[in-house]
What we know:
The chain has 132 residues and is mainly α. It has 2 domains: 11-58; 67-131, CATH 1.10.287.10. The chain is 65% helix and 0% strand. The chain has helices at residues 11-23, 28-38, 44-48, 52-58, 67-85, 90-112, 124-131. It is elongated and about 55 Å long. The protein starts with 10 loop residues before the first helix and ends with a helix.
Amino acid sequence: xxxxxxxxxxxxxxxxxxxxxxxxxxxxxxxxxxxxxxxxxxxxxxxxxxxxxxxxxxxxxxxxxxxxxxxxxxxxxxxxxxxxxxxxxxxxxxxxxxxxxxxxxxxxxxxxxxxxxxxxxxxxxxxxxxxx
Length: 132
């Protein structure tokens, strides 16, 4: 697909915006939403030719952990806090089991793809420290 002609920003300007938003603490998905809604950039990869994460990695601003596994870890930590206050909430316990299974499965995948440190394992106590 070719670059749409109605986009007012050059590739360099879009890249500068991505780096600026990352320095402000925005995640890659948040950056994509901001560019889409505010700057009329429908899809960074189709316009610039690279994904947002690839641009961040090239400029040494990438995250240590992939965004999707971090979001799951945050959810697991929040559910654990909820279960401490409400120990009889069986639905939340089941939800926690499902989320932790997803974390372990993603951890295996990312370890094979070398996106996580070698020998990485999910530990709820370490996860709470990682998120906070």
